[in-house]
């Protein structure tokens, strides 16, 4: 089987979020898919199989299968457009989160994802104690959104992964207004095998509605302040979110089973 490792949401290698992409002719046993993801030891491995309308797509962390992943979808689209001979400008992926579309325009790829607005949380003292950070606002979607005062708080935050893993949520995203962009974030999912994710497309399905409402604008420029860093150009379109960025392929290889 072929394997591609693609840096997503970046225009240069060694930045953005690396994802493994494994094109398949048919689905393999779930345990084998999980073992491949564990062996890759990246935040996500994407598997895709051709179907009648495009490709069926699934994503695995080293520990679990997830229902939505942005950067690995961007990486999968790069493979479809550049390695699998796909001639169109828009590819459809059928996933656990419904149909997802990726459109290419030159080097830029744009994801069409469902928005996941968060429900505000009024009582935050317990979360402040667990996370060790002053909270301006909190809300819950699949992931826990924590808004703090400024970008420096996000950049300098020292996570306690044990405390985050103990919370009743898939993941925690820390966010604040940006300095040279509209908003910044970081993303932590230690209980799911991803202590800190470098760039997280699915998180922006919640972050974009949050900041679009706060800032009163539909088009947003976002940065994820992980060590690798990442950049996303986002837009609210009804109940959908579009996320645009570039990708670079780092590695092509073969899985030998």
State the main characteristics.
alpha+beta; globular; 41% strand; 257 residues
What does this structure look like?
With 257 residues, this protein is an alpha+beta fold. It is 21% helix and 41% strand. The protein has an 18-stranded mixed sheet that branches. The longest helix is centred in the first third of the chain and has 13 residues, at 70-82. The chain starts with a strand and ends with a strand.
Please give the structural blueprint.
Layout: E1 2-8, E2 17-23, H1 30-40, E3 45-50, E4 55-60, E5 65-66, H2 70-82, E6 90-95, E7 98-105, E8 108-114, E9 119-121, H3 125-131, E10 137-140, E11 144-147, H4 151-156, H5 161-165, E12 172-177, E13 183-189, E14 194-197, H6 204-215, E15 219-224, E16 230-237, E17 240-245, E18 247-254
Parallel strand pairs: 2-3, 4-6, 11-12, 13-15
Antiparallel strand pairs: 1-2, 1-18, 3-4, 4-5, 6-7, 7-8, 8-17, 9-10, 10-11, 12-13, 13-14, 15-16, 16-17
């Amino acid at each position: 089987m072929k394997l591609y490792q693609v840096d997503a949401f970046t225009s240069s290698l060694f930045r953005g979020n690396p994802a493994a992409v494994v094109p398949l002719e048919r689905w393999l046993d779930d345990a084998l898919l999980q073992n491949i993801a564990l062996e890759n030891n990246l935040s996500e491995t994407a598997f895709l199989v051709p179907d009648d309308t495009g490709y069926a797509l699934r994503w695995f962390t080293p520990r679990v299968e997830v229902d939505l992943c942005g950067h690995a979808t961007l990486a999968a689209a790069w493979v479809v457009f550049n390695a699998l001979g796909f001639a169109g400008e828009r590819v459809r992926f059928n996933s656990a989160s419904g149909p997802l579309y990726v459109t290419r325009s030159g080097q830029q790829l744009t994801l069409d994802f469902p928005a996941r607005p968060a429900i505000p949380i009024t009582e935050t003292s317990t979360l402040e104690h667990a996370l060790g950070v002053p909270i301006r606002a909190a809300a819950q979607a699949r992931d826990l959104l924590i808004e703090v005062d400024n970008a420096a708080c996000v950049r300098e935050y020292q996570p306690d992964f044990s405390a985050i893993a103990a919370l009743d949520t898939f993941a925690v995203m820390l966010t604040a207004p940006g300095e040279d962009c509209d908003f910044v974030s970081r993303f932590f999912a230690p209980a799911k095998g991803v202590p800190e994710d470098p760039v997280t497309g699915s998180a922006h399905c919640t972050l974009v509605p949050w900041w679009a409402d706060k800032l009163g604008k539909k088009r947003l420029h976002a940065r994820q302040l992980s060590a690798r860093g990442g950049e996303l150009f986002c837009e609210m379109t009804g109940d959908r979110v579009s996320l645009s960025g570039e990708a670079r392929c780092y590695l092509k290889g073969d899985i030998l089973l």
